[in-house]
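Input structure tokens:
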């Protein structure tokens, strides 16, 4: 039981870093002749969905560019299991695998669903949550600054690698809507002898 819980918790942490590496080094640049993820994501998805009003779906046909291809899920989840399989073999205990498999599968499902809701808002229950509101702003900034905020689900890797951005440094015409936070720079206001910050 302990090893299953350990596998589950470490699976979530690992998935954040796996997502970050995949997003930064495979989805945002070609890897030799393997250009499919780069073309599908950086070229098509980012060209279609920017940080302005086009962050939300405009043309119905473009909704098919929001999710990854159906076969990506099983492939990525199995790739995530490789370090846990190696650790299990070295320890002689395979109870890490069920926990890590569940958390990595859940992480991928959360990625796909949240990413779908971010670009195709419909006022779902998830979109009314505080966590979605924050993550939506995080992802919106990624569409403005493609070399920041690579995580969609858990920005742990962004925090540890220095790619975390909480607000834009310059003003821009950003997407609007109830589940979209204001990510514009804080404006300094002078009140008496002191400066205060406002959103």
């Amino acid at each position: 039981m302990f090893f299953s819980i350990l596998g589950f918790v470490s699976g979530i942490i690992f998935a954040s870093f796996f997502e970050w590496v995949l997003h930064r080094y495979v989805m945002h640049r070609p890897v030799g002749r393997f250009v499919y993820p780069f073309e599908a994501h950086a070229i098509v998805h980012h060209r279609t969905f920017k940080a302005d009003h086009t962050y939300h779906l405009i043309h119905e046909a473009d909704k098919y560019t929001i999710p990854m291809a159906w076969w990506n899920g099983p492939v990525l989840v199995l790739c995530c299991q490789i370090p846990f399989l190696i650790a299990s073999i070295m320890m002689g205990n395979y109870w890490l695998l069920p926990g890590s498999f569940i958390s990595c599968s859940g992480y991928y499902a959360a990625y796909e669903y949240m990413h779908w809701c971010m670009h195709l808002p419909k006022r779902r229950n998830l979109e009314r949550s505080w966590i979605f509101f924050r993550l939506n702003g995080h992802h919106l900034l990624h569409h403005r600054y493609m070399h920041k905020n690579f995580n969609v689900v858990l920005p742990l890797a962004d925090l540890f690698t220095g790619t975390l951005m909480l607000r834009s440094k310059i003003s821009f015409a950003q997407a609007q809507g109830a589940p979209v936070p204001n990510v514009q720079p804080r404006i300094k206001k002078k009140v008496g002898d002191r400066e205060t910050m406002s959103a």
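Residues 2-198 form one domain. The longest strand covers residues 187-191.
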